[in-house]
Every structure is written in C-alpha cells, then in structure tokens.
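Internal tracking record. Fields below are filled automatically when a chain is submitted to the structure queue. Please do not edit lines marked as system-generated. If the sequence contains nonstandard residues, flag them in the REMARKS field before resubmitting.
Queue: standard
Priority: normal
Entity type: single polypeptide chain
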Amino acid sequence: QVQLVESGGGLVQAGGSLRLSCAASRSILSLNPMGWYRQAPGKQRELVATITSGGSANYADSVKGRFTISRDNAKNTVYLQMNSLKPEDTAVYYCNAFYFKHYWGQGTQVTVSS
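SYSTEM-GENERATED OUTPUT FOLLOWS
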C-alpha cells in the first residue's frame, strides 16, 4: 500500500511559477516510475511528466522546457517545478507511483489566470 499526498497547488497569473510536491508513505526508491498527471474540466487525464528511480525524466510535449520533475529520495518526495505557466495548464494535478500497481494522490488544483 502506498499513500501519496500532493501539495503546492494554487492560483497564479500567466507567466508565473508554482512548485508541486508529492510525499510518499514509503521509500520512493521502490516506486518506479513516479509521475505527475493532470485533468482539466471535460478532458481526459493526461501525462505531464515521469521520473524513474534512476532519475530519467520524460515530459509531455506541451510542458517541455517549462516544467521540471525531480525527486528527493531522502524526503520520499517528488516535485514538479512549473514555470511560464499558461491558462491551458489549469487542471487538477495528480501524483502517480507504480509499485506492483498504480497509486494516485488526491490531486491538487492549479489555476492559471490570463
């Protein structure tokens, strides 16, 4: 069993930045990969970024160059640094981890105003 708790969402103006955090209930060295997904109103959940236990990152084309995923193994936490935010980034952001199956956090709202 894995619990994931996201934090860091909020309201920001276009061009601004936010950093999301995802704290896991067990060592993230065993969670491979971990990632962030998002779901906007009326749309399907989509991949934002993933990171392996070895630190290899993968990004959706829509966020490349603006978002950075990272992990702090000592804190059992994964981060998503979001810069140059756009209104189309508005969504509920979910943390995901794979440990024999997929686990999800409860989500954190990110709203970008124009």
